[in-house]
Each structure stands twice: as structure tokens, then as C-alpha cells.
Amino acid sequence: LIEASPSTAGALRQLVKQSKTDSFQMELHNLAINKVRGSVRFVDAGIGREKNQIIQGQHAKSVEVPAMNLDDLCAKLGVTKVDILKIDTEGYDAEVLYSGKQCLKKVSHLEFECHGIGAWKLHSLSKLISYLELVGLECSFVGRDGVMYRLTQCWDDKFEHKSWSNVVCSR
Length: 171
Known about the structure:
The chain is an alpha+beta fold. The chain is about 25% helix and about 25% strand. The protein contains 5 helices and 9 strands. It has helices at about 5-20, 70-75, 95-100, 100-105, 125-135; strands at about 30-35, 40-45, 55, 60-70, 80-85, 105-115, 140, 150, 165-170. The protein has a 5-stranded mixed beta sheet. Strands 1-4-2-3 form a 4-stranded mixed beta sheet. Strand 7 and strand 8 form a beta hairpin. The longest helix is centred in the first third of the chain and has 13 residues, at about 5-20. The chain is globular, with a radius of gyration of 16 Å.
């Protein structure tokens, strides 16, 4: 589990300690996954807050957080297979995905958000879907009605909207 927010990571560590289960192992890493290697400034507005995000410059509640790209993380951890990769980085999902071409080849199922905040302003969903197709993933929107709307090889320019949506991909 990767969590950039120090306060949320601390709360998650407590939950993991309390969950005394042998059915799975969970390893928690307090770091940001991004195209940047080294560290990033991160607003830590509290446990689980959606205002927790990478920023440029200073903010009263910002902290320095270690950062690496997705491929570096997978290599460091010796990842050979990822069953489910869920990304929710408050507008930096595309940046995370573009930082992990080799790692994404090991992912069976992927979920991420797309919308008009953060770095999404700089990215095209169409280009991202094409990139994910190159690593063998087929993607769909998850509609509010629970219906899946295929994106891979069924692209329509109306999908290039900047309102909130979840995208799921699988091989």
C-alpha cells in the first residue's frame, strides 16, 4: 500500500497493526508515486482528506515527502505480478501511470480516476488509453449506472471530458 500523506499513512499503519490477520500481508510505504524522483511538496490536510496532494511551492500544511516513479517502486520491491492496482492521487493519476510502463505490464486489473483537477489539465484521456493499450490493458468507463462503457478501440471524442469518472482496465 502506498500513501503519500503522513497523517493518513500513520492511521493506516494503526489499522494494519489492529487487523491481526494471517490471510494476507500488507506493506505500507509513505511516499508519493510520480514522475519525480527524490521528493515532492505535499499538502497534508489530515487523515483521508481529498485536499491532500502534491503542490508546487509552499503551503502552510505542506511537508516534504519521498517520491519515486512506479517502475522504480516495482523494481525496488521485486514485483513480478500485480493483481489489482488502484490509483487515487487527486489529479495525478496519469502522471503515476506514465511513470510505470514496465510495471503496468505486470498488472491484471487497474482502476483510476480522471477529471479536470491537478495534472489532468495537462493530459489527454485518449492518449492515456492508447498508452495503456500498448501495455496490454483494455479500459472502460464505469458509469454512474454501474454499466461499463468501453474506451479501448471504441474511442469517441465525447469521452475526452474533464468531469469526474472512474476508469477500469484489465487484461
